[in-house]
Structures are given as C-alpha cells and as structure tokens.
Amino acid sequence: MNDLNVALLQLLPKGSQEENLRKGLDYCEKAKQMGADIALFPEMWNIGYGLTPDRQETDKGAIGLDSDFILRFRELAGELRMAIGITFLEKYDPSPRNSLAVIDRHGGVVLHYAKVHTCVFDLTERQLTAGDDFYTADLDTEGGTVRIGAMICYDREFPESARILMLKGAEIILVPNACPMEINRLSQLRARAYENMAGVATVNYPYGQPDCNGHSSAFDGIAYRPGDGGSRDTLIVEAGEAEGIYMARFPMDELRDYRRREVHGDAYRRPEKYFALVSGEKAEPFIRKYDV
Predict the structure, then answer these.
(1) CATH superfamily membership of 4-278
(2) pLDDT band with cut points at 50, 70 and 90 for residue 102
(3) Catalytic annotation on 241?
C-alpha cells in the first residue's frame, strides 16, 4: 500500500470545549490539505487536559461517545475522507475515563480506547476509571488498510502495552500525550517501535500548556535496511516546542516487509517463560549462583 501520513496536531487548547471543537475542526481541515490520512490530537483534547482534583468540576467536562462534540468530528471525517483520532474526557460510570476515538474516513468509529494505566499517583487522574484492555482495528485509508492500536501517555511507560498491541496485529500505534517529552520518554517510544517492529506516532501539547513542551514524535520501527550495513535511526519526525502540525510518513510496504523477515516482535518470543509477568505475584529477589 501507499505510505501512511499521520498529522500530529501539536496544539494549544482554548478556554472552553466549544472553542476546542472549533479549533480542532479547523486544524483537521489544514491537516487534510497537507495530505494527512489520519489527524491525531493530544490527550483529552475536549477539555485541553484541564483536570482538577474537584470531582464535580471534572464531571462537568465529561462527554459521551454519542455527544455532539464527537459527532461533529465524525461528520468532518466523512466530509474530508480523512481519519481523525479525537481524544476526550469520557462520561462513564462510576467516574469519567481518559479516552480516544479513532474515526475512519467514512465517519465511523473504528477504535474506542480508554487509558489503562491512569496516573493513580496524581490527584487529578486518580479520580478517573481505568480502561479494561488494549484494542486494535483495521483502518481503511485511501492507500489501503492499516491495523492500528492506541496507548495514551502513561501507558507508554509499560512495555506490555505496546507488546499486547503488537500481538494483536498493530502496525501503527497512536499515542496521545500530555506531559514533558524529554530524552527518556522519547527513548521509551523509540524502544517500543524497535522491539515490536511497529510504527509509533505520539502527539503532545506544545510549550505553553502547563507541564508540556511539545516534541511530538514518530518512529517507523525499521531498524535495519538491506544493504545499509548496520542499524539506522528510526525517527521520522520530532517536533520542537511550538504549536503546529507535524507530518509523519510511515512507509507501510517497507514496514511490512521488515516485519516478515526480522527477528523482533513475535518472531522468537518464549511466552511460556514469562509467568511472572502475568501471575500478579511479586517476584522474589533471586541471584543465581554458578559453580566454578
């Protein structure tokens, strides 16, 4: 298939949900003009990640998947014939969720994901309901079908998040974000792409949003190319701190060929040895002693 073009919408939120709606729609149209197949928003765009420790205030910003806010993006996706990854504080029982809806170019919601690893150490995210699982979906684009998955911000800190998505067939992992992106977090994303042979597209809020600094990024996960004689930098794009649209082009045919012939991902895993990862029990410290 053709390359997949992901527009990373590194945008400053406005003062209200209605203003964020208008700005978001406007930037989706700009992304389409730039050739995007998918326009991706940073974490919880409908309220600009404007959480407070006040639960009543938090509930006021929560919306349903069937809300007018989401419906307007669905209508625009159909009009533009472009997929949109819109993030929002989702109305949910017993408390709201931190969610993403990926809308295809026909206006249908093909992926609905709620953040699994909520920041329970934080007074604001502690009040949210965590998601139940990681999901993938086939996204129909003009150039062909791509299997996508999603993580949200703190999910990236856990290798299991991307690994599960890889096992479920994800070729491209979409990562809405709202935190400072520095060398260690960027290295995490690079590692998730490398170890799973998957593309990873992350969009953050720009400088000016509290506790954010831009540096949206994308990695194609292709560490080796025939004839190169060594490994290569998998970075496609890294934004600076400024607001803007940053385009990430994923070479899907090359990525798929790479996944067929290389040794990472699911090629040589030994899941029968990984019991401690899923048992729920704390592993005892253990140092193996070797006879000399």
Answers:
(1) Carbon-nitrogen hydrolase (3.60.110.10)
(2) very high
(3) no
